[in-house]
Glycine dehydrogenase (Decarboxylating)
Amino acid sequence: MVAHECIVDVRPFKASANVTVEDVAKRLMDYGFHAPTMSWPVAGTLMIEPTESESLEELDRFCDAMIAIGEEIREIETGAADPQDNVLKNAPHSVFHLLAEDWPHPYSREKAAFPREWVRQRKFWVPVGRVDNAYGDRNLSNVMFGLGVWELLIILVIILVLFSRRLPEIGQGLGKGIKSFRKSLHDPDEIDVTDKEGEGEGPKKE
């Protein structure tokens, strides 16, 4: 019996087959499932909440997918599958990868794309392959791109909408700032240094 949620511990597979919780989560995408909560509240585990909104049919498919992934892990443990080049380590398999002329893997395209017969009926074609999450987080790349007239107009409209209520206040503040700047150019000793309440000491002259 399972209540609201349960935790599946896949950490032992790290030692037996070099399979991590990320490998299992990404392989689930080949079966058409978004992975459950990963590494929370316990690192290296999957937290599954089966009673939230899924039908019994969907839960049966998910259980079958997990059983199939267990069989794939077993193939690695017994030496039937390559410990590095296997369906788990290369998951998810994108449509571009599956249709490429070059297929260097020891397993078939069939095994990668349709690990169970029912997957054919509602196949989710993954648009991209595996992404190194940690590397991407630690090696950010800035990209500069040119903005066209329409993009600039959209940004301007967004700014106006966000600050429409404060436009009078902003305009008044800018006006005071410009006035003070112009005054300082003619007489630096006359710069207004009072606070916003109008209180405070003026400039001290010796």
Summary: The radius of gyration is 30 Å.
